[in-house]
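User: quick one
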Amino acid sequence: MTAHRFELRVYYEDTDFAGIVYYANYLKFIERARTEALLAAGIDQVALERGQGTVFAVRALSVDYRAPARFQDVLTVRTTAAAVTAARARLIQEVWRTDELLVAAEVDVVCLGRDGRPRRLPEPVRAALGGMLPGL
Amino acid sequence: MTAHRFELRVYYEDTDFAGIVYYANYLKFIERARTEALLAAGIDQVALERGQGTVFAVRALSVDYRAPARFQDVLTVRTTAAAVTAARARLIQEVWRTDELLVAAEVDVVCLGRDGRPRRLPEPVRAALGGMLPGL
Amino acid sequence: MTAHRFELRVYYEDTDFAGIVYYANYLKFIERARTEALLAAGIDQVALERGQGTVFAVRALSVDYRAPARFQDVLTVRTTAAAVTAARARLIQEVWRTDELLVAAEVDVVCLGRDGRPRRLPEPVRAALGGMLPGL
Amino acid sequence: MTAHRFELRVYYEDTDFAGIVYYANYLKFIERARTEALLAAGIDQVALERGQGTVFAVRALSVDYRAPARFQDVLTVRTTAAAVTAARARLIQEVWRTDELLVAAEVDVVCLGRDGRPRRLPEPVRAALGGMLPGL
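Assistant: Done. Structure below.
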């Protein structure tokens, strides 16, 4: 298994008046990590959309918020795969601040065509995500 | 039970290059609905924060994305409570477009003090959320 | 002249760790107001995009931030036109909290085709925006 | 003069249904660059806020949108200072894609105290921003 790691900093835009990162913004962080993980595997979502009309969509997710991130923190998103089938990938994405786990998410990703209907994951996508499965 | 209903429109800011609402933005929609539900019950989060140093935080959530919302859609967020204890409320929040359920979320809300530690839900908050339980 | 008025509330998502509305988010507020002003004039941006491939884009803007808005504030965006030509409209958009002017913006809007090139404003758009000019 | 350069990638969250970066999001990009420029000069905004109750605020800005950025683009924000006085700094911030200037902004930054009133720029901030003036 090769976990993908993506580092980011927390900016003003990410915080809210409670002084911590707004809960929806962790979904932005983990989506950035998915895009970078795909790019690192040679998968260009713009090309996929233009070529085949295929886009990614999140079908379901669950998030456990354990501790808050704050302005200027440097965070790492760690992404692995829990399951990859023809039509869906289940990813585990964790947001860490150094060695403290702040947020843990499970994200089910599918592919859709221009008509909005589900499509099989393109083979290179399956291969890329499959490489993030445990025990490989 | 009194379900709370909150209506909103989808704007440019909410969409992404796939032409649909970006998945993180539904969390904004349902948070707006929570703020409005509290306000409708006479609970002012600014006063709570200034008076007692109490803020709300989401501890966990799960989301089922069934169908996408699009630019200019008018959506309704329907909020009810599934469970309310001294320290936590579990809310069910659904995003509808007319009679089509687009997104269903389960959200666990807690209260934190200025030190970031969990606090009991203030009594008026428990009463307000308790009024959204089924069977009442 | 008919100024367009659009009311909104400030939510958690709009604030930042300084406790006030994040400066970029006023651009969201005034864009919502533009969309609502167009809809009120019968102009549906989704139909424009699908039918003619025409989208709106902001070409330039200037913003004067006079006083901050805060969480839960109810704000009104007041929109008028300063100039409307074949290719461009200059709008004046002000964000008020009751009778206090918080933010004043001047926004130059153009239309683009699917190729990203400038297009003349569609006639109904010119008429709608022209109706917001002073002295009419 | 030392211009500060900050690189970022465009993600899903930054785009809108027109397929390009939403106009408000460039303000996020240039704010990230300001935070990084301050950090590079040893200025920690969290420490400033906690120690002296000083926060930064944008007082005015103007933006020229020349060409759109798109999903997955790598952009560079180039920041210099045009003027720095006791109470205010005028920054020039440009967003480039390789050697194409996409967006040019002029941003007036001030400092505010906890009471929301203007304050002199802290001396280290003046020094840091002064080092980004032309001709130095």
